[in-house]
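Researcher: I'm comparing several assemblies side by side, and this is the next one on my list. It has 593 residues spread over two chains. Same procedure as the others: predict the full complex and return the structure.
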Amino acid sequence: MSKDVTILAIESSCDETAAAVVRNGREVLSNVIHSQIDLHTLYGGVVPEIASRQHIEKINQVVEKALVDASLSLQDVDAVAVTYGPGLVGALLVGVSAAKAIAYGADKPLLGIHHIEGHISANYIENPDLKPPFHCLVVSGGHTHLVHVKDYGEYEILGRTRDDAAGEAFDKVARAIGLGYPGGPKIDKLSYEGNPQAIAFPRAKFEDSVYDFSFSGLKSAVLNYLNSCEMKGETVVPADVAASFQQAVIDVLVGHSMEALKRCGGTRLAIAGGVASNKHLREAMEAACRERGIAFYHPSPILCTDNAAMIGAAAYYEFIKGVRSGYDLNAVPGLRLGER
Amino acid sequence: MKILAIDSSGLVASVALYEEGQLLGEYTLNTKLTHSETLLPMIENLMKISGTEKNAIDAICVAEGPGSFTGLRIGVATAKGLGLALGKPVIGVPTVEAMAYNYYDSEALVVPMMDARRNQVYGGAFQFANAEQVENLLFVDGNGKGLQAFVETDALPAEMLVQKAAALVKEGKAKQIIFLGDGVQPNTGSIALCDVPYQIAPAPLSRQRAAHIAQVGESLLKNGVNTSAADMKPNYLRPSQAERERAEKMGEA
């Protein structure tokens, strides 16, 4: 049996300062997340400069707590991994700079990890039997990707959003119906009280790429609906708007995923990212998979949100392949999946 | 006491090793490369070529600000990461004051200015003095020399800083002014209006140097300043734009 690999992972790509210790890509020894959400709520969304300022104030405490929670010292870890993109450049740079210095200071190998690869890898943590190949739908505030995971670290992007990310649409619609930020969980909750068939919102489709997404038209349709109700003096039922909007998003996400599995002959689907903790989406996706005999995987909510355990999981498979980053590692805000 | 010093507050990236008043080595880059790409490789190179073991470092001193927000954070995050890994304190050194050390012990009024955008500079007006003769000096060192702040570091229009400095010369505080820093070039018009004797520092004496971060940091350490790597944070001098706009809105309401 080969030696265990223990990785200290750091994530600071958006508004969570996170660090974790993960063994062999699957066993989480610690998972510390410092969320800044209360600060950003004041502004109705993530403010990059405020996020960066918070990261630098909390980075050492979060890393130290991750080591303490794992009952390990820095000398006990085999490598330091860090998200280097995509994300907010100023936010990424805090984690990248600190991780490089920690790796250098402790004489440990350094690995720069792709944020989306982390989200996908979050599924390995609670599903010991999940191995590539499989399909994965990544949905968050910044990303909407339908990915064919061919092997560890090998990805084919089948579809992506052409405008807003799914989570972004949730935030904008939530703001429009007075729910506030962050919109995802609030719409998810309110939808239980509404009729998802009440309003016919559009489901975008592209002739040239069946797997691509678009949510800005849907968002505009919701805003137009609200405006026209106001003009006509009609009462708006926020729960119905929330439920109908959410259903439109879910129909597209589920529809595209099922189409991909059908065309590629896939038998396993995972979901990942912040929106993957949406209960309605999970239920709909689970039902669609059950109907077709497809195995369905999803991480716990704590592993759906931005976290470092997922970065540690992704880093393990890079580490055993021999991938290492240099001390000149830079933040790459527009990093594409599968690129290094 | 061996110090590793870092300055990435402005256009240059600079790292230095310093011990008991002696500069052991310094590495400064003034290129288009980002601090993120250069800073740690520079530290690694300097440590290696000087034959310095990491655990021989007693403290890390870093330019705490003001300066470019992102630049400051790259330097500070690097310093904090090193402090965490090595278990050593991280001392924040004020950027503008450290720049005055390019003219250590000069009798002139030293006026560093960094380009702060929005038609402002981060700057101040300082003069070196003897602790025996002048009270409340900053960063008094082993030679009994320290810095007297006539205009404390602030974000202000270059024109205003020039006027304040000229007034000090007229009061007889100094015979001339030395302007330095990357704020000079964009504000040559304002400086040209200075009606007392002045000099503009030549390029090699005009930029941030980690050697001076170390020099000031050593004085701070010897005067008992000791910040943990976890607690050290940048001093931006300015709130973020979002915070500023929100405060303005709240003020109006």
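Model: For your comparison table: Strands of chain A lie at 6-11, 16-23, 27-35, 79-85, 110-114, 134-139, 144-151, 154-160, 268-272, 295-297.
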